[in-house]
Amino acid sequence: MKAYSPLVDELLAEEDLLLRLKPTEPGSPDALRRIRTAEEAELTGGAVLAAASYPQLIRAGLLYAYDAIDESHRIVKEIGTDLASYWHGMLHRREGDFENARYWFRRTGKLGVFAEMHARAAGVSPLMGRQTDWDPYVLVGECEQARFGGDVNQKELVALQRIEFDVMFDYLWRGAFA
Q1: Second label for 83, Cα 20 to 30 Å away, from 61, 157, 177, 178?
Q2: What is the DSSP letter of 50?
Q3: Below-50 pLDDT ranges, the chain
Q4: Smallest Cα–Cα separation from 96: which of 158, 140, 150?
Q5: d(CA 13, CA 35)
Q6: CA 85/CA 130 separation, integer angstroms
Q7: How do residues 122-166 score in pLDDT, each as one tens digit?
């Protein structure tokens, strides 16, 4: 496990995170209360940040992990960075709003973390392994097929969703203190 702040490490140690492609309700009420009420210093471990938006993006990422999609969405839609746009696309995919997810991924462009995400994804998904780089549109398409009864491997999609989250959260964290 990566070393973030003590609070973030504790929250991300939960093994039942991101097991649903389309959550219908938020996860653990206790964890969500802690995420909502955490001071910036608790979220960041008190480190000096590269930009003022990072504590909110960290909070949005944690809310996303605990299936509080609406709350996470309210945060990322107010932040105009490529990183926030990518999270925005992830949120819309999980909501089942696939066209909106594609829109936000188009706005993002290619992030420097895609090669790492692709390498990890290729290890669990033959489809992702056939791509030349991480392609968020492929995951959107597969989730869309799953939503409408297509013949897809749900377990693989959940694994890809977790890889995407883990890599993106770490990328966010590293960028916050650059």
Answers
A1: 157
A2: S
A3: 1
A4: 140
A5: 14
A6: 26
A7: 999 999 999 999 999 999 999 999 988 877 788 999 999 999 999
